[in-house]
Amino acid sequence: MKPYDVYPLFDVTPVKAEGSYLWDKNGTKYLDLYGGHAVISIGHSHPYYVKMISEQLQKIGFYSNSVKIPQQEELAHKLGELSGYNDYDLFLCNSGAEANENAIKLASFYNGREKIISFTKGWHGRTSMAVAVTDDPLIIAPVNKTDHVLVLPFNDEAALEQAFRQTEVCAVIVEGIQGVHGVNVPKESFLRKVQEWCNTNEAILILDEIQSGYGRSGKFFAHQYAGVKPDVITVAKGMGNGFPVGGVLISPKIKPHHGMLGTTFGGNYMACAAAIAVLDVLKKEGLIENAKKTGDYLMGKLKNIKGIKELRGLGLMIGIELHSPCAEVRNELLKEYKIFTGSSGNKNTLRILPSLALKKEEADIFIESFEQIMSKIAVK
Question: Number of structural domains, the chain?
């Protein structure tokens, strides 16, 4: 047997990681400005994170959600406190796609409706309803196609109003910042309008903060810049700093009952230990504030580099759109300068998604390297 060949791979085999750096099997050191799809939030192999997981494993690694797991209570309390959503409940699962599946199910349970609104260039996962609300026909199998989803133009308030006037809407799902398709930031007025229409029509507002949440934007959640308060928020990626964990933050107006949702592995001891460690480090080391400070610094430096068509993002979630496909630039950053960056659905856009602990001097390494590459392109 061999792995199913669905991933295009770089010829790099990491064997060690620390902070913002990786080392491959040959001992070559790389600066990681991608974090494995925005997953590394507090830095690779953070000592407190390693200690928390190791100590938990030595006590008990797993039991199902048929017994009391106090770590779930601790995680929910700390997440509520740091995010500002103390009055919400937390359902724990294993991934972002699973979080979005449960969020959509909760919305439909709540109001008994079927129609879900999502937006162009949105990405919500690869499973059943999550992929159905994702704007990417290439990953939607025939069995995933459904009449329950209406995909509207992103940031289009008129289209949103028309949809609500013509359709009985169950829920609207939108990313705090669109990630996969090139770091597209929703207008604050647009998010406020989405909330207004949802509230008026008893529809559920779902904020997908899987990539943009957990401090990456410079606030705990990107939607907090707009001052909205969604009914449901989905999280994953940076939540576990590499350990598989996801969650759904649920408004108190959506009442639970036994059997409503369920999972075998969600909220297990190891996942909780990882997620608690992440929250502790975010708070103690001021990493949300660092994400804003270092992100602003990066954006300021990037504005002075010629050849960039558009800069988008908040905090340490940055999209750099060039005038042509960025694959050549990304490959040169990796091969010649030993820097990991990310691609996107927009072939011209390079994504920067580092650890929130990224230091100014590490940002400078990228700026200097990127500037050298762009100056060569300008000469051509």
Answer: 1
3-state DSSP assignment of residue 82: helix
Residue 320: alpha-carbon gap to chain centroid: 18
Domain extent at residue 248: 47-284
Report the alpha-carbon distance of residue 220 to residue 61 in Å, rounded: 29
Residue 272 within any structural domain of the chain: yes
Whether the per-residue pLDDT at 377 is higher than 90: the answer is no
**Single pTM value for the model:** 0.97
What residue type is 267 in one-letter code? G
| Relative orientation angle of helices 70-83 and 269-284, to the nearest 10 degrees | 30
135-147, pLDDT tens digit by residue? Answer: 999 999 999 999 9
Other beta carbons within 10 angstroms of residue 326's beta carbon come to 22
Angle at 41 (CA atoms; ends 318, 27), nearest 5 degrees: 95
In a domain, 228, yes or no: yes
CA dist 169 and 197 (Å) reads 10
Backbone angles phi, psi at 69, to 5 degrees: -125, 95
* pLDDT, the chain, mean: 97
CATH code, domain with 66: 3.40.640.10
Q: Please report, in angstroms and rounded to a whole number, the separation of the first and last CA atoms in the chain.
A: 47
